[in-house]
Design brief:
- By secondary structure, the protein is an alpha/beta fold.
- The chain folds into two domains: 2-141, no CATH class; 150-392, Purple Acid Phosphatase, chain A, domain 2, CATH 3.60.21.
- Helix content is 46%, strand content 16%.
- A six-stranded mixed beta sheet has the order 5-6-7-8-12-11.
- Strand 9 and strand 10 (342-343) form a beta hairpin.
- Helix 1 packs antiparallel against helix 3.
- The chain is elongated and about 85 Å long.
- The mean pLDDT is 91.
């Protein structure tokens, strides 16, 4: 409930601020009743959604919580779009008012004519319309299909036995309101056609722990030839890690927490390891990853091919320095906004490995954008369950 309260305060504050920005910077629009009413309705819709969401959580009733979360999320993205675009529109309205002032009070010729004013007004209107349309599209696409595609990854000095080896990477399914067991079943059905040898799950499996046992049964029934293994994410801690561990203990899917197992493919030994999650948000936990990776690697004498499961891609720096050939991670959801297969936030946080393939020396990281999400918004960054296909460089 604390999280809902926090989201409520933030979302409502954004809603009230966008109303103020419309009134302060876009007075011509504010005078139009339908625009003014729409702007005011959005914070009211937010209150309604948060009320349903809170009651649903309190009574453990998904029929109330689910529509409440959807209404709140939709109102949030629309209000955020307006919050970001209305000040820019206000600048164009200010320019228009300045031009009107010049035309009215100067008898001399001005370089600005009425057609130019029309263009400026069109630009002012196009900015929030484009922002709102993009927000709506991103919200809609978050409920779209999950990409299950082959991701060929070239590895230097890859043993011949592993050329063409396929790993289904499941991350951030966040089973509850927006991603369901049916979605997971559909992903596994699509993946089955591509015949992965191994299934690796890198955390944040279920936000509703009642769905976790059935999720693990679906993964177990997939029957990948070399097995299926998992590690923890931060949401396992948020939802109750002790209960999560008990559910895994009753399943046939091993949970690796600073642990791993040795496999053999042909005559090639492989080590599959999984590390713990630091739980906290924010800066890189460098010392944490050094300690957990060292603990994990201490579980093997295998000097061959190593695969590391880490919920967070931040572990890659140290993993690469320790000669781990392949690291699989999630957590970031790709920032949920992407362009040309990369997160749009890559420019600002290039060292956070937000989405896709990254390399350091002979080590490779793939950060999945995730099967699901806890907030329904995807724009240019679709949900995915990649099947990593190892190839000789």
């Amino acid at each position: 409930m604390r999280f809902i309260t926090f989201v409520s305060i933030v979302t409502l504050s954004i809603g009230l601020l966008q109303v103020f920005l419309l009134w302060a910077f876009n007075r011509d629009w504010w005078r139009k009743p339908w625009i003014r009413r729409t702007s005011i309705i959005l914070p009211i819709a937010t209150l309604l959604g948060m009320g349903l969401w809170g009651l649903g959580e309190y009574w453990q009733n998904d029929w109330l919580a689910r529509p409440g979360m959807v209404i709140t999320a939709l109102a949030f993205v629309l209000q955020l779009a307006l919050l970001l675009s209305l000040p820019i529109s206000g600048v164009f309205h200010l320019i228009n008012r300045g031009i009107d002032f010049l035309v009215r009070h100067r008898k001399t010729d001005t370089a600005v004519d009425s057609n130019r004013r029309i263009i400026l007004k069109g630009i002012a209107a196009a900015i929030p319309l484009t922002a709102v349309a993009s927000a709506g599209a991103g919200f809609t696409r978050s409920f779209g299909s999950i990409n299950v595609d082959l991701k060929p990854i070239a590895i230097d000095n890859l043993p011949a036995d592993l050329d063409g080896y396929r790993i289904l990477h499941l991350s951030d399914t966040h089973l509850r309101h927006y991603t369901t067991l049916d979605d997971l079943s559909d992903v596994l059905e699509q993946a089955h056609e591509l015949k992965p040898n191994l299934v690796l799950v890198t955390g944040d499996v279920a936000d509703d722990l009642h769905q976790l046992p059935d999720a693990l049964k679906l993964i177990e029934q997939f029957k990948a030839p070399d097995g299926q293994f998992a590690t923890l994410g931060n949401h396992e801690y948020f939802r109750g890690v002790e209960q999560v561990r008990q559910i895994f203990d009753r399943s046939a899917v091993p949970l690796f927490v600073n642990d791993g197992t040795n496999l053999t493919v042909g005559s090639t030994p492989i080590f599959i390891g999984g590390i713990d999650d630091p739980r906290r948000m924010g800066a890189k936990e460098t010392e944490f990853f050094q300690r957990t990776i060292d603990d994990t690697l201490g579980k093997t004498t295998n000097s061959g091919f190593k695969v590391l499961m880490s919920h967070r891609p931040d572990a890659f720096d140290y993993a690469a320095s320790q000669g781990i050939s392949l690291t699989l991670a999630g957590h970031t959801h790709g920032g949920q906004i992407g362009f040309m297969g990369r997160s749009v936030f890559e420019t600002y946080w290039s060292d956070r490995y937000l989405w896709g393939e990254y390399r350091q020396g002979r080590s490779v990281l793939y950060t999945s954008s995730g099967v699901g999400h806890w907030f329904p918004f995807r724009l240019g960054c679709p949900p995915e369950a990649p099947i990593i296909e190892l190839r000789r460089a």
